């Protein structure tokens, strides 16, 4: 019978010593200020001679180590821990029932999370699975994009008829279809947020915390490149990335400006709609970003909730009468979702909760708050609340 060490070596997919060394530097060097995914990109960029297959193995091993960190023995060498993590990931993919619900709930996330949300076995199992890769094709072009890329599966139902799940192994950023702007890599739940906004051609919208512009591009397509889309972020480098993405996607109806989140806005325009995709703890992204599970703290959640409340308050003057304010966060923490929404409603009585239709579950009745749960549809966890300003 093979020893445990021998079985683990087999599960490591025959990684070379160089790959073990890369993985070791990343898992030992990652911390709050040096996220694992950033370190991984830097390492792979520096190792230009590394075979593509070895780069893929390094990525798989890094994310497996953080995803299964709660099961690893700190007294073992990093190499032994990496092999153990890969073995656990492989077993979970083949036989998820071999892991008990109680064990998963106890080990997959830090203990403080239970004070902010219900930790269900279904949610934890979704975290331990490999993340799914979602695409948003240009309107009406899903079948064409799927045929060009191959290995695509349509979400299948309106209003997400242009949504595809890619299950292949190609680097999509290198494909001709991507460079032609025929699709975007965008999480399923992020696509749902864009649809919830219901932006129309000719309207004025503000994507207040746009980041690198995934939702900006979606809003522009819904507006058919007509009207005005104001885009802001506090980081200039993110807006530069957005500019490049917008050029590739042929998005022209936007203006970008820095905004630090303060009371002084970057424009005096009154908007038909404001999307506040606020900075948050990112609990909803822990499937594809497992390192963040072990660096995020309850103090972060509380501090970010205060920031979110202030951002919403500062955006109020920009919403015209009859206009919409959409609050979205990729977290499931109570402090950043229900408590923020409740605080806003108490402070700003001129805003009335807006009934929303859930794009992921179109048969469900309209609701003023929508939860996108990863265990249900395979996207990130998101919370959305919305209000309409009275008097329009």
Helix content: 40-55%
Q: What is the fold named in CATH at topology level of the largest domain?
A: Rossmann fold
Low-confidence stretches: 1-11
> Which architecture of the largest domain does the CATH hierarchy give at level 2?
3-Layer(aba) Sandwich
Structural class: alpha/beta
N- to C-terminal separation? 75 Å
Shape: globular
Rg measurement, Å? 22 Å
- Run of helices and strands: HHHHHHHEHEEHEHEHEHEEHEHEEHE
Number of E-type strands: 12
Strand content: 15-25%
What is the domain total for the residues? Answer: 3
The number of helices is: 15
How confident is the prediction overall: mean pLDDT? 94
Under CATH, the homologous superfamily of the largest domain reads: Vaccinia Virus protein VP39
Query: Main sheet, how many strands, which sense, barrel?
Result: 8 strands, mixed
Brief sketch in words of this structure:
This protein has 15 helices and 12 strands. With 392 residues, it is α/β, with parallel strands linked by helices. Helix 4 (52-67) packs across helix 5 (78-94) and helix 10 (188-197) packs across helix 11.
